[in-house]
């Protein structure tokens, strides 16, 4: 029941968001001939915001993604020393912030996880919010470094509410809980903090426009009885036993999750043909959100990122994580227009 409600929610909210944000195409489900689980258009998930253009996990990146027509905004979440959820992908801070240039924090560097660095869980939320974000990829624009502060989850939700007020629409978010077991080992279990945030925002309910994702199956299994929100199981790829996540089969994942989030290579062979994974997931009622399409990286299938996106859309993915939402939106729009034109000629 939760899974069916979640699928209906994603379809309706994607259409509303595209219409309100000025996306190139409003996903028009059945008329476009999509092979998704619901027949609705695949959703474009802004991976850490429009992180191909702005430093990831910043107001600038999320706002730009929204303006480019992304259907879902995706923040990664770490834990601060005082138990607040922080919008960061990496547990260390040297690559994504200006902390190395902050003399007041010079003595806070330490070795952890085999790396000498500054660590999110060693700082309070206020200390982290004093840092400024930087682009993590050297070959991407550095023009927007040191402008936006590090965000808490509350900051992120404040931005979402601001955008919703501007467009008079509802925005789907897809927060990823990073390293929950490692945080718990430091006495910083993210589960209570997440539930508290969802409760305070009125999101801990069936039909809420939020998808909670994680690579950590035990975390999602703990979370499942505590919330009716949509849950997505992420993982890196197949192992010797087949397509699994932490040793779990798709059938086992379907017992606690509503969706799966595999790497592109799990879905597509290098020649662009299907591995059969998506079809197996759909047969179990699991939506498939694939990661990560990047315009400035070699595609897994095809000669260009457009080829890769077309292959994924034709396959029937329900969502595509991308660092450049505008490209994914444009390819989807072109495919939708071509299909509608074909039908009109019949």
What does the model show?
The structure is a single chain. It is built from 13 helices and 14 strands. With 346 residues, it is α/β, with parallel strands linked by helices. The chain has one domain: Phosphatidylinositol (PI) phosphodiesterase (TIM Barrel), CATH 3.20.20.190. The strands form three sheets. The protein has an eight-stranded parallel β-sheet, with helices on both faces. A hairpin with a 5-residue loop joins strand 3 and strand 4. The radius of gyration is 20 Å and the shape is globular. About 4% of the residues have low confidence. InterPro entries: GP_PDE_dom, PLC-like_Pdiesterase_TIM-brl. GO terms for molecular function: glycerophosphodiester phosphodiesterase activity. Belongs to the glycerophosphoryl diester phosphodiesterase family.
